Amino acid sequence: MVEMYRLPQDIKLTGEFPGPVSRALGQRRSAAVPASVASGMPVYAVDADGGVIVDADGNSWADLGSGIAVTSVGASAPKVVQAVQEAVAHFTHTCFMVTPYEGYVAVAEKLNELTPGNFEKRSVLFNSGAEAVENAVKIARAATGRNAVVVFDHAYHGRTNLTMALTAKAAPYKKGFGPFAPEIYRAPMSYPYRDEPTMDGKEAAQRTIDVIEKQIGSEYVAAIVLEPIQGEGGFIVPAEGSCLPWFRGLVRRASCSSRMRFSPVSVVLANGLPASMMGLNLIW
Ligand SMILES: Cc1ncc(COP(=O)(O)O)c(C=O)c1O
Questions:
Q1: Distances 69 to 52, 72, 258, 272 between C-alpha atoms, Å
Q2: Nearest atom (ligand 1) to Cα of 160
Q3: Which residues in the chain land under pLDDT 70?
């Protein structure tokens, strides 16, 4: 059998929780990091591989967090480790806008291949998910000459000012941090667990389109920002598996009837893989 993992895939607890090394790190942290940056676990990671994460006291835990579900490629996948080590041995930063390099182009090519849709694509890379979403909104506004951005109930898009406005939940993301950017409109999205049991995906999409048409006016809409599967909002899988085919169809119909014109811009978060549709923001 091929050995897949560097670390034993075992849960191993050595004694106290948290152990003495993690407790000491916790004290250093309290003196150096603001209390508002909270962590779910009081132990400090030193290694991770496959399904386990090892803490500073040598305890081995089942890694149920996985970077909030974004390290789907693995915590220390050998190919990723090797590629990063090779890259930083040559240079850590040139700024692509000053001196370009092949790695940027190769990542863009891969994203164009992996993201949904069979049309000509281009990709641009940013430092974080929130910055990617902000820039997609800027691009959509500049391209359409319109202002309104439609987002959904329970959506999460980040912690910068614009993405806080796009995000639904007040606490802990927005409370006390306003005022927020204007021209953001919230619409309902399919939520099979809470919608009427008789409501199917098509009806839920129609409800969304009706809100857009009636409350905003589709001719003012620059972009619709959508998580195909909502994450922070409660892991909501919309009706009919993926909402995209029927929603895209309805958006197209709305385009014909009311001059709504959208071209899809996919925003994949820094660590995200589009295959899972989690951490993917689609912007029409
Ligand atoms: C759907 C979605 N959009 C945006 C973001 C923000 O990404 P970042 O934290 O890299 O700014 C996240 C982060 O979890 C996310 O899940």
A1: 14, 7, 39, 8
A2: 11
A3: 1-3, 70, 241-284
